[in-house]
Amino acid sequence: xxxxxxxxxxxxxxxxxxxxxxxxxxxxxxxxxxxxxxxxxxxxxxxxxxxxxxxxxxxxxxxxxxxxxxxxxxxxxxxxxxxxxxxxxxxxxxxxxxxxxxxxxxxxxxxxxxxxxxxxxxxxxxxxxxxxxxxxxxxxxxxxxxxxxxxxxxxxxxxxxxxxxxxxxxxxxxxxxxxxxxxxxxxxxxxxxxxxxxxxxxxxxxxxxxxxxxxxxxxxxxxxxxxxxxxxxxxxxxxxxxxxxxxxxxxxxxxxxxxxxxxxxxxxxxxxxxxxxxxxxxxxxxxxxxxxxxxxxxxxxxxxxxxxxxxxxxxxxxxxxxxxxxxxxxxxxxxxxxxxxxxxxxxxxxxxxxxxxxxxxxxxxxx
Length: 367
Hints:
By secondary structure, the chain is α/β, with parallel strands linked by helices. It has three domains: 2-58, no CATH class; 63-303, TIM Barrel (Alpha-Beta Barrel), CATH 3.20.20.70; 308-356, no CATH class. Helices cover 23% and strands 24% of the residues. It has eight helices and 21 strands. It has helices at 104-107, 121-130, 147-159, 174-182, 196-203, 208-220, 239-252, 278-290; strands at 2-5, 14-15, 19-21, 27-29, 37-38, 49-51, 56-58, 63-64, 66-71, 85-90, 117-118, 135-138, 163-168, 186-190, 224-231, 259-263, 296-299, 309-310, 317-322, 325-329, 360-365. Strands 1-21-9-10-12-13-14-15-16-17 form a ten-stranded mixed sheet. Strand 15, helix 7 and strand 16 form a beta-alpha-beta unit.
C-alpha cells in the first residue's frame, strides 16, 4: 500500500446536470435511459443521483471506493499504451442491475461510509503523475453515473498530459454521452449480450442504447475503444448469438475494434451458474475472427495464445501476453508490424511499458 497526501478533499453533494422539471412536480433525470422521476429526497436507481432542494445532485463527488495502480491490460485495453500503469478508481452505485455483477460490493453499495478515499480532481491528477501513470481509469462502477466528477478529473489529468479511460456499460443518453466522451481518450465498453431479452431479464435495461454508444464512439469521436462481453453459460454464449454479435461489429464498427470474450465466475445473484469453459471462449474468438474481426481475445483465463496480438496482414505475433505480462514485441514505436509494415490499430507511443502484472493499492491520505 502506497500512501500519498490528498490535499483538498470533498465530501459534499455537487450540482448535477441533465434533468428537467415535470408538470406533476417531479424532476426527471435525463442522464441515462432509465429517466428516473424524483420527488424531493428521492434517489435514482443508481442511488448516487438524488433530488435535493429541487435539483438533481451527485452525492459521491470527490469520494472513492479506493485507488489502485493496475496494468492497462486489466481494463481490458490491449491496444492503448501497452504495458503502462494506470491509476484506477471508482465510487459507488450503478445504473444497471446485472445479476452477475463481478464488482457488486461496489456497484450495489448503499453504504457511503465505504467511500473512505476523498480527493479533488487535481489531487487525483497529481497522484497519477507522481506514480508514473500514463492514464487514469474510471472503473469498478460505471463512471456515467458520476459524470460531473469524471469530467472534472479528466480536465485536471489532461492539464498534466495524462490520458483518461472509461470502463463503462455505455448506458447513457445522447446529450450527456457527447460531453462524457469528449473528455475520454479511451474506453472499454461492456457489451453484455446481443439480445434484448438478456438486457431486460438480467440487467433490467435495453440493448439499443449500448449499440448507439458504440456506433457514436466509432463514427463521431476519436476515442480509442475496445469491447468486452462476459460469456455466461446458457445465457449469451450460443453460436448463433456470437455470430450475430461479431457480424454486427464488422458491419457497424469495422474490423479494427478489438473484442474481448471474458470468463464468467459465479457471483452476486448467479452463484448457481457454472464458470465459463475455456472452450467456449476460444469458440467465440474463432467466430469473431472468421467474421473478419482482426483482434479478438479471451479474458479471465490463462491462454497466452488467445490473448496475444497478431498482424492482420502477415500473421506475425506483434504483442505476446501471459496474463498481463508482455513478452514478444515486434511493433515499431508508432504501431507498425516490423515484418511486413502493416499498421496495427490502436494507440502506440514509443516502446511498450514494463509495468507487467503488478497491482499497487494507493491511499490518498487526508491532509
